[in-house]
Every structure is written in structure tokens, then in C-alpha cells.
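Pasting as-is:
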Amino acid sequence: MVTKDFVDSFRRVTRLGLVLAFAAFLGACAANKPKPAPPPPPDPAEVARQQAEVRGQEMLAKGIGEYEAGSYAQAEATLLSPDIWAASDRIKTDALKHLAFTYCVSERPALCRQSFERALQLNPDFDLTAAEHNHPLWGPQFKNAKNAQ
């Protein structure tokens, strides 16, 4: 004879079994969910552009450091590096500005003015700081380049 306690225990065990089976079923469904696709590989042209930008920035920083240390011939060579000219117009413009400064302090005013002219061709909004405008060597050369624009 089946007692009431046995029936109640059987129902509890059965419910627990159903709950566990349902949980396992949900877990299996979640585990079989398709995984998101991996991101596409980077565009080789974009990777090359970013690498060129980094190399250009490094060479620009090196050239500016050499200029600031008074190594004008070395700064000129570094600022004319192909890595700079493969980078963005912003880096080229900054290099041209420091090339102009290098040419001016090396008593080559025509090259100084030409560097400013080229910087203005790359970026018509290119300008010097107030202190740079007032510099006796390159201030007038920049003004001449700006007027020739």
C-alpha cells in the first residue's frame, strides 16, 4: 500500500528532477548558441598608414630634439627623412616649420622661406606662435611666405 508520505516524497523528487532536467536543457541551449563572428582582420592599407604615422612622428620628435640641441645639420637630415614624408600632412607641416627654423639659423633664408611656403601649401591655416612671429630670423621669412600665398 502506498502511503501519503510516499506520494508526497515521490512528487517532490519528480518536481526536482523536472527542474533539474529543465535547467540542463536551458544550459544546453545556451551552450549551443552561435558564437559571434570574430572581427574582420584590419585593412592592410590602414595598418600601413598607421605604421607610417608612428614612424613619421618618431622621426619628427628626433629631428626637433636635434634642432633644440643645436645639431642643425643632423636635424635637417632627420627632418628630411622619408619616414616623415610618408606620414600625415600634420607631421609634414611641423617638420617643414622646424626645417625653416633650421635653415634660418644656418643663414639660408631662401630655404627658410621655401619651407614656410611648402607648409602653407599643405595647410593654408598653418601659422606660427606669437613669439615665433616676432623672431628676427624666421618671423620676416614667414611673413614673406604668407604674403606670397
